[in-house]
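Memo to structure team: turn this sequence into structure tokens by end of day. - J.P.
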Amino acid sequence: MTLGNTIGKPGAGIDSPAWGNVLSIFDEGTFVETGALIARRSEELPGKGDGELAGVVTGYGAVDGKLTCAFLFDASRMKGAVDAKTADKIVSLYELAKKNGAPVVGAFDSVGANVFEGTTALAAYAKILKAVAGASGTIPQIALVSGKCIGTLSAVAAMFDIAILEEGASLYVTDPALTGEKNGQAPILSAVSSSGEAASRVRSLISFLPPCAGCGVIAAECTDDLNRRLANRLPDDAEAILSSLSDNGKTIAVSKAGSLLCSFAEIGGVRCGIVLSDKNKNEGKIDALSARIAARFVDLCDAYSLPVVTLVDSAGLAVSGENEKAPFSTDLARLAFAYSGATTPTVTVVLGSAIGASFALLGSRALGADITYALEGSEIGVLPADAAVAFAFEKAMAEGRTRKELEDEWKATVASPFSAAAAGEIDDVIAPSELRCRVASALLMLSAKGTFDAPDRAIRPL
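Reply from structure team:
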């Protein structure tokens, strides 16, 4: 795609620092501004801003040849204040994006509503919120928070699929000066990047995601060896596991918060989302934040037909008063809803431990997974072996058998992956070296899922 360049016309506002960052997302020379000369008129504003350009810049361009729309709250124009003109420009941009199946990038740097407009400014917020909500799950939306994003505008950014926060950016509902404490927040799926890296990360996400829902599973020619074997022992580092599994070791991190890492990658040429338990963070136990993040990520993948690969190594649920206040049960319910409702292909592998609710919640077959594997030596059970032995074999220990003997016996029988396979909850028990090729094979097999619907009729006997 080659789009003309109209940047640089008088009043385009390209001298603000934010512009260079946003323009670097697009292929060079492709960004075209829309509504470039929309400005305030004196009869519309009793106080200030007569003739000043609206505080948001809107337009479209190409990212790796893919049509992409964007809006930028420009602090050099009315301090990026939200008003009726702002809302009109953003709503029009969303209409354009949805008609053409184009992702939207929103860059945030604004002081909030224009107080001179009163109710009209509040209505402007509502119009923007409605536009973002109406596009959710239809076209990808990536937020880039480069400066201030406060009040209701923080809710707008939180509605986007993924948010990238530049270091030093401030996102909060209530000014810390009023609360008396640091209360900066981050949307559920978000990452913090340096100023130079933020735009590059946004560009990577736009390039990876399909332009809109309904594109189906994206399976391209694999540029790595489909049958590449891994080491007989997986790395201890979670990100190293992701790298070894993915084509050419390339991944795009979406969230590293909590014990569940969420990333995008290609495996066997199939673009997918990966949820991975990080056993180095509290034994991979699921806490409220991790459950909330993973649920949102699975929903995102499902909306855009990205298969979900879940790699489980978790000692169960994290027990703490903080989690119970979350409330924990609601976040776990969100996770269950996400996996059970997913129609995109789902592949789950137990890498190490899958204890208690972690086995049930993280993409189990009973919850709807299409293909499930477990590595040799993994442990699947209601309780860890030591706790199970203490609970069930008190009499046996009293008769002289050692705790170690009983724990080994428990792992080899009740908590064995072969036991889970015999029960039909695991498709196969595989060696660590087979992990990549087995997952790649499953994804390729499932890549046509949902595209073939058999007619509701049978061939009748004569």
